[in-house]
Design brief:
The structure is a single chain. The protein has 366 residues and is an alpha/beta fold. The protein has two domains: 278 residues, Metallo-dependent phosphatases (Purple Acid Phosphatase, chain A, domain 2, 4-Layer Sandwich); 55 residues, no CATH class. It is 37% helix and 20% strand. Helix 2 packs parallel to helix 3, helix 3 runs antiparallel to helix 11 and helix 8 runs antiparallel to helix 10. The longest helix has 23 residues. It is globular and about 75 Å long.
Length: 366
């Protein structure tokens, strides 16, 4: 498929839902997809969301900006589920997804359990064909060796990010594939990463309770993205240890965005997601009141409603307080979720490719 860059220069993209006052020179935007389960089209929800074309459209619109972008796949993206043997018709969808991810030039793609439906050899063939940066810290071949790269280390504008990925296998899956214990596999890589990374990010295809236990057991992990749970987190949860962790929601309806602001190399990063979202909410309410007042000063427009004026003052103080936290924090990260609804640009080329695959799959089932 031809590159979409020229087309995207013509059509306007969707700006990220996160925005802060820091210079883009010291900001890295990490876009994370996961748990899409090979869904090519938007869900049949009240607000249809997701689908491969919107995912690709949003990612390319971000790359049009002058921001520093990294693109990660957290796992469970290639097939609907882990079935063995898997239907042959699934290969039409997986081949299109692999082509799309190669086209988008993802920086790391974690292998979740549903991605194992056709086995390692199929994944290695896709990796070679589409130049995919596949990742797994704990999956092993029959010789007990790692099948894929155990981690990726990225250097962007002085910021150093280490990305690992672990998959928890059930008994049925473990009878077909070998895997090191996730905690053991991570600890094996930590000596190489402790001094090389400012933030260690783990992509985890695991049950929630095991994800939380892993974050508590390994304090070196800073951030965990879970690609198995169907819930979503607008604000990161805290494990019993240092790590914050999140999950991405079902069927690829959302993309996670981790904005990292890094002004002081060598200093720790702070999670200010709560601060940012409070700031964003308060600004939004103030904008609503100012829009209602129009060209009239807010104090004049609402002078007969002293209770509302007091509320406005509360929001103004909240904006000042939360903005002060952001302005005085040197290194921090903000987690947010982007709902892939109808406002997200959907490139026609990818819509056409999806329709062709769906028609081909439908014809073969007849």
């Amino acid at each position: 498929m031809k590159k979409l860059i020229l087309l995207l220069l013509i059509f306007s993209g969707i700006l990220s839902c996160t925005n802060n006052s820091s210079s883009r020179e010291n900001t890295v935007k990490i876009i994370i997809s996961g748990n899409s389960r090979a869904e090519l089209e938007p869900c049949g929800c009240r607000i249809p969301a997701g689908g491969l074309p919107r995912r690709m459209g949003f990612i390319h619109s971000m790359e049009k900006s002058d921001e520093n972008i990294l693109k990660l796949e957290a796992g469970n993206w290639l097939f609907p589920a882990y079935n063995y043997p898997a239907p042959d018709t699934w290969k039409h969808t997986s081949d299109l997804l692999a082509e799309a991810y190669g086209e988008a030039e993802f920086d790391a793609i974690h292998i979740g359990v549903s991605d194992l439906a056709y086995g390692f050899e199929y994944l290695l063939d896709l990796q070679k064909k589409y130049h995919l940066p596949l990742l797994s810290t704990n999956l092993l071949n029959d010789a007990g060796e790692g099948v894929f790269r155990p981690f990726y280390l990225f250097h962007v504008k002085g910021f150093r990010l280490a990305v690992l990925g672990v998959t928890y296998l059930t008994d049925d899956q473990a009878s077909r594939f070998k895997a090191m214990n996730p905690e053991e596999a991570i600890r094996k890589q930590l000596p190489k990463l402790r001094k090389e990374a400012d933030l260690i990010l783990l992509l985890a295809d695991m049950p929630l309770e095991k994800t939380e236990a892993l974050g508590e057991a390994i304090p070196e992990i800073d951030f965990i993205v879970n690609s198995r749970h169907k819930g979503r987190t607008q604000l990161p949860r805290q494990t019993g240890g240092k790590a914050a962790f999140t999950y991405l929601g079902p069927d690829g309806q959302y993309l996670g965005i981790l904005d990292v602001v890094f002004k002081s190399p060598g200093q720790p990063l702070r999670d200010v997601s709560s601060t940012f979202h409070r700031l964003d909410f308060s600004k939004g309410r103030l904008d609503e009141y100012r829009k209602r007042a129009g060209d009239t000063p807010v104090e004049t427009y609402f002078q007969d409603n002293p209770g509302l004026l007091r509320t406005i003052r509360v929001y103004e103080k909240e904006v000042e307080r939360q903005q002060s936290i952001l302005d005085t924090t040197r290194n921090y990260f903000i987690w947010s979720m982007r709902h892939l609804d109808g406002d997200v640009y959907s490139p026609p080329e990818w819509e056409k490719a999806v329709n062709e695959v769906l028609m081909q799959t439908s014809d073969e089932k007849k």
